[in-house]
Write a structure and sequence with these properties.
Length: 116
């Protein structure tokens, strides 16, 4: 650990003479921070895990029906809710899953089934 800190300090010292351009200093500081704290690694989560964890039960029902090609009105009728509520749930699902269009849900869930 001490050797690692020494190596990182030496790397940062190369850029501390004042003559280095700002981009080099920024890169050095970023390298120093990454060396000390490590880069944040994202855990590999499947689309299905994201849907199961972040979506409520009602949002999952709406998402699956939308993925099957149901319209907002058909989803509302199937689940016994108003059109506005179905649309609000669908908007929430798209936001949480970082999708732009309800048609993207079909591809999203198809991809999650092929990963397993």
């Amino acid at each position: 650990m001490a050797q690692r800190k020494k190596d990182l300090s030496m790397r940062a010292a190369r850029f501390s003479d004042g003559a280095a351009p700002a981009a080099s200093l920024t890169d050095a500081l970023r390298a120093l921070a990454n060396g000390l704290f490590g880069k944040k690694k994202r855990s590999p989560t499947s689309p299905q895990e994201i849907a199961d964890y972040y979506l409520t039960l009602r949002e999952r029902e709406v998402a699956y029906l939308a993925a099957l090609g149901f319209s907002d009105t058909e989803i509302a009728d199937a689940l016994g809710m108003t059109f506005q509520t179905a649309r609000a749930h669908l908007r929430s699902v798209l936001t949480k899953m970082d999708l732009q269009d309800p048609r993207d849900l079909c591809a999203y869930f198809l991809d999650s089934n092929t990963d397993s």
